[in-house]
Structures are given as C-alpha cells and as structure tokens.
C-alpha cells in the first residue's frame, strides 16, 4: 500500500524536451484534416515544456497570383510541467502567448 502523503509523483517528471514530448503524446496527438499526424515541436521554458504542432506552410499565392491570408489554425497545444509532469491544454497561439496563458490559468504564482 502506498502512503497518500508521499511526495513521489504518480507521473513521470520530464528532464528533457524528448521526455516532455513522450509524456505529451500520451494525451495529445493532433492530426491534420487529411488524417495525417501533425509533427510536434517542443519549446522549453523555466517551469515547463510547450508542445505544439508544426504548422504546414501555406501557399503564398492562389492560382490567379493573388496573395492568400493565412488561416487561423485554432486548436490547442499542451504544456508539460517540469515539477509535476502534469499535461495542461492551452489555446494554440504563438509560443510566448501560449506560455503566458499557461501561467495565467495554471500557474498564477509564476507571473
């Protein structure tokens, strides 16, 4: 029987970007509309690892030569906490904005 007051976490703690990616993949596996898995990128910051999909390049022009506006990809990305291993979802935004959202909603003590 395990001691409920034990400070040993039930989940693995990431010590590298590779480990964070492995942990994130247990709960986060985005796919493109065509059904293919999205390649994932990892960005380490002081209290966690941001895991997000690498967006495909968008065509710069249409067949008529007009410039296209980039689409809003929507969706989510995740943060794997360095100190608990917890995987938390945040809106898919530029990395600095996604990290700020994580701090605001999950770790306000780090603002």
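-> sequence recovered:
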């Amino acid at each position: 029987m395990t001691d409920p007051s034990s400070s040993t976490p039930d989940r693995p703690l990431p010590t590298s970007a590779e480990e964070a990616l492995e942990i994130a993949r247990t709960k986060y596996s985005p796919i493109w509309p065509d059904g293919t898995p999205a390649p994932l990128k990892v960005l380490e910051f002081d209290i966690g690892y941001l895991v997000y999909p690498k967006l495909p390049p968008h065509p710069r022009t249409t067949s008529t030569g007009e410039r296209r506006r980039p689409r809003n990809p929507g969706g989510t990305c995740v943060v794997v906490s360095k100190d608990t291993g917890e995987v938390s979802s945040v809106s898919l935004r530029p990395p600095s904005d996604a990290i700020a959202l994580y701090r605001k909603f999950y770790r306000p003590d780090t603002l």
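The chain is about 20% helix and 20% strand.
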